[in-house]
Design brief:
With 324 residues, the chain is α+β, with helices and mostly antiparallel strands. 36% of the residues lie in helices and 21% in strands. The strands form four sheets. The chain has a five-stranded antiparallel beta sheet with strand order 1-2-3-7-6, covered by helices on one side. Strands 8-9-10-12-11 form a five-stranded antiparallel beta sheet. Strands 4-5 form a two-stranded antiparallel sheet. The chain starts with 8 loop residues before the first helix and ends with a helix.
């Protein structure tokens, strides 16, 4: 299993290149999109090469989620806590984006190791912003309390117009993912993958992992949620997070893995589909080769109605002609 990395690799590459060539007045205006429809925009002017403007656009939230000022609950506080000295939040943000910040590269720490760690943290801005409400809930779980301004059921956006749900309690947090896929083949593969995923949790080596379950119908925790918000064609996955799963450094990993769980499943579904296509192509090629070897050695020539002859080529001959 491959886990997605928190830092945006492309954003981290741009930041590292800018820091290494800070004195060069190179203008930069770049847009790109990453999984779950998170869009980025970076702009650097030749007049101020040490100032970098970064804008982030989040997936459109469904109506059941709570957004404040175009951002998830607690996102501004999380940004200020993560980047206290080098980032300035601009209000209003760039048109078409949820968040715009100005980064002063000249204020980065001189120590190379600390500077690189800070750049990695800046490249993880997606986790800081989208994971802010989840982090708030799990921080209270670590202290065995429930946030006073959080309801009994919390909906968090993780894909365009799709959400997953939290049920905060004093001793645990229940996390429910309605799994939706547009392609029918992806739905079948995801259903099989999720069933095996739950079975793998029962192995002896994963006793400390969060308990998880899969069902075709919504769990009872979602009985008050509107039907349109919990439509799922690949079932529902439920995790139970306990305080031991968010102690110390485990908190960041838990927040990221839960925030990107659907993307994690989609990635492995596409990999499985590609692997099966490769196996089928190889099988077809081997069958054609077996048929070619079964032909008699003497070449037969056929004639058409116009008395023109042709010879059927084997797979090996056809490839040789196409390469010539």
């Amino acid at each position: 299993m491959i886990l997605l990395q928190s830092p945006s690799r492309y954003l981290l590459q741009i930041l590292s290149n800018r820091v290494q060539n800070l004195e060069k007045g190179v203008e930069l205006d770049c847009n790109w999109v990453e999984f779950d429809d998170v869009r980025y925009h970076i702009q650097v002017t030749m007049k101020n090469p040490h100032l970098l403007q970064l804008s982030v656009s989040l997936p459109p939230p469904p109506p059941e989620t709570i957004f404040s000022g175009g951002l998830p609950l607690g996102a501004i506080e999380a940004m200020k806590a993560a980047y206290p000295a080098v980032i300035q939040i601009l209000d209003p943000p760039r048109d078409g984006f949820n968040l715009t910040v100005k980064l002063n590269l000249s204020k980065l720490p001189p120590d190379e190791g600390y500077r690189e760690a800070l750049l990695v943290k800046i490249a993880s801005v997606r986790e800081v912003v989208l994971g802010a409400p989840l982090r708030l809930v799990l921080k209270h779980l670590a202290s065995r309390t429930v946030a006073p301004d959080i309801g009994r059921l919390v909906a968090l956006v993780h894909r365009p117009r799709e959400s997953f749900f939290l049920v905060p309690q004093v001793d645990k947090v229940i996390v429910v993912f309605p799994m939706r896929f547009n392609d029918s083949v992806d739905t079948i593969l995801a259903t099989s993958f999720l069933q095996e995923f739950v079975e793998a949790r029962r192995t002896a080596g994963l006793n400390n992992a969060p308990p998880c379950s899969w069902s075709t119908s919504p769990p009872l925790e979602l009985r008050e949620v509107p039907v349109e918000a919990i439509t799922a064609n690949a079932g529902f996955v439920t995790f139970v997070i306990y305080p031991r799963h968010v102690d110390g450094k485990k908190l960041d990993k838990t927040v990221w893995n839960l925030s990107t769980f659907h993307a994690y499943v989609s990635y492995h579904v596409k990999c499985s589909e590609g692997f099966m296509h490769t196996r089928m192509r190889r099988r077809v090629e081997s069958l054609i080769q077996a048929l070619d070897r079964a032909k008699p050695e003497t070449e037969t020539t056929k004639k058409t109605a116009q008395s023109r002859s042709f010879k059927r080529l084997s797979l090996k001959d056809a490839r040789g002609n196409s390469n010539s």
